[in-house]
Protein: Rhamnulokinase family protein
Organism: Streptomyces kurssanovii
Amino acid sequence: GPAKSFAAVDLGASSGRVMVGRLGRGTLELTEAHRFPNRPVRAGTTLHWDVLALYAGVLDGLRAAGEAAGGRLESVGIDSWAVDHGLLDADGRLLGNPVHYRDARTEGVPEKVWADLPADRLYAATGIQHAPFNTLYQLVAARGTAQLAAARRLLLIPDLIAYWLTGEQGTELTNASTTQLLDPRTGDWARPVAESIGIDVALFPPLRRPGDPAGTLLPHVLEETRLNGPVPVTTVASHDTASAVAAVPAAAGERFAYICTGTWSLAGLELDSPVLTEAGRRAAFTNELGIDGTVRYLRNIMGLWLLQECLREWGDPELTPLLDAAAAIPGPASVVDASDPAFLAPGRMPQRIAEACRTSRQPAPRTPAETTRCILDSLALAHRRAVEDAQRLAGHPVDVVHVVGGGARNALLCRLTADACGLPVVAGPAEAAALGNILVQARAHGLIGDRDEMRSLLARTQHLTRYEPSGDRAAWDAAAERAVRR
Ligand code: ADP
Ligand code: LRH
């Protein structure tokens, strides 16, 4: 039959976008219908997401998507960054703006939680690495607030957007796994964990899985977006990283690692079952859920956030000349630990990077180009360490590294990653999360088969670039020593 159009709403920490995927017989075309900035807002002492601005961007995007698709969308899917959520009162109204995961409200909270529930037991039950922003710690931080007391429902960000679009509530599984309240072995809530710290998992609406129906666009949404109804909303892997991993263009049987590089770098492996070892916990590996019962065994690395924050400080200069200048600098030179949670909070990033270099007795970068080079060398090293550690901890060797997400557009980062890892890098697609979102919808609508088929369609239709490792191994080994936190 004729090509069918699916819309992906993909909300990243740096921008939101609505993408249209047109699937024909063996073809897949992706177009950007609308992109809008995602600008956090500090009000009072709290850092918030501007969720209504994001929702307005979603509506604008769906209208543009409908125009791009000739008024007819087969379905809509929604994914976003993980862990964050909105609280609803008894009338189903949003109680305040969702708090940003970089807000400081969780400072000191994990230590309090571990006093009742030791970190090793928490890991054995949930497989989720320690990060102060995990939903679990956010909820403990909110304990005793009037807002939480009034809350009758908790909706993760993509589920909140889906609720506003359809009037229906659910909790999508892959994103639920990032709350640190889910058992990755059963795919159900880790009830004893939640009970022991006084969190009521009944706040979450029932779980739903990628591919499940999630309602249809409400009449006023159709009117506002000028779409012809009915338009179903399909549950996708609503954690953006889960959607991105679903769109890694690996060949069937290929032994691969992936790095999803955007605001964060998420580097690791796709496994059949969780690895809940103490060694993995100490190495900060997480077991998030993927599509089809897979496990995303990965480490969070600060990612291009380091560069985004520097650019903001420098008054947002153009990226391409800066990357060209950084590429001309010999390296790896000074490096920092790009997985250090010390870089989580916003502000003063060039200074913080310079300070980290001095603390480890390396020359501090002086110019924006030198700082950019330091960041990209440091990210390449953090990628290498995560890829090596994941293989060892999971007993799962790889032959190739797939780099997806916005960072796949950064040729210098991809080349440095190949050199540091000593493995070929296949870069692309840059819009992996949107593509994974679209393909899961297409599959639910019977247009495509299993995961291998999704991936081979991507490998045939998307623009990919291969980087062979080169350069001086000894120089990278020496730099790896300098990047270690002390
Ligand atoms: P998120 O989903 O977390 O908002 P993205 O996957 O959209 O992030 O990636 C955004 C990052 O991609 C930017 O911070 C930038 O560093 C990088 N990027 C985007 N476009 C380009 C480009 N043309 N050249 C180099 N890097 C790019
Ligand atoms: C990337 C991401 C990542 C999470 C972080 C909060 O966008 O979803 O996987 O750890 O945001």
User: Anything to note?
Assistant: The chain has a mean pLDDT of 97.
